[in-house]
Design brief:
Length: about 180
């Protein structure tokens, strides 16, 4: 991919002299992890990641000078939603970052088992939440600020806080009920 400046392109003044390849390299792994957590399908996440960067490049006119990372996640979220609408019969699973991934490289077999169980429990609990609560919990686990979550999801800041609180509360309740 050729490197060229986004500086001076309509709506991209705040990006400065940064190459498209630099933006891609900085954010591709985070975008992929986010989409993988939404879909739980490696190939679909790869396709949606590619779709995200294609859409981002083709919609530079929509970029209004906000931070690049939340803007890219917003593009990724919309790519996911569009894909979901196309495949309404297929149900997507959501996971939280309790472990970042199933840790197949864990030296201690007990640690591997614990991580696997945490992954599965988090997945089960998140599936029971409404979509908005799943989304804010997932974005929160990826260290997004409330304002960035609101921007990515296109909702009000108060709605982000409320959804995050209720989602966490519901997951705690599910955890307590399971341990009884």
């Amino acid at each position: 991919m050729a490197i060229f400046s986004w500086y001076g392109m309509k709506g991209c003044e705040r990006l400065g002299k940064i190459g498209l390849e630099d933006v891609y390299q900085l954010h591709v792994n985070d975008i992929y992890r986010y989409l993988f957590r939404l879909t739980r399908d490696e190939r679909l996440a790869e396709d949606l990641t590619q779709e995200t960067f294609c859409r981002a490049f083709s919609s530079l006119d929509d970029y209004r000078g906000e931070k690049v990372r939340p803007w890219l996640f917003k593009v990724a979220y919309h790519a996911f939603v569009d894909g979901y609408r196309k495949k309404t019969k297929q149900r997507f699973a959501f996971v939280e970052a309790l472990p970042e991934r199933r840790d197949h490289s864990a030296v201690d077999p007990a640690e591997y088992v614990v991580n696997k169980e945490l992954w599965e429990v988090a997945h089960e609990y998140l599936e029971q939440l409404p979509e908005k609560q799943r989304q804010v919990i997932l974005l929160s686990a990826m260290q997004f600020s409330y304002a960035e979550m609101a921007e990515v999801l296109g909702i009000e800041l108060a709605d982000v806080k409320r959804s995050l609180f209720r989602g966490r509360q519901k997951m705690r309740q599910l955890w307590r009920e399971e341990s009884l």
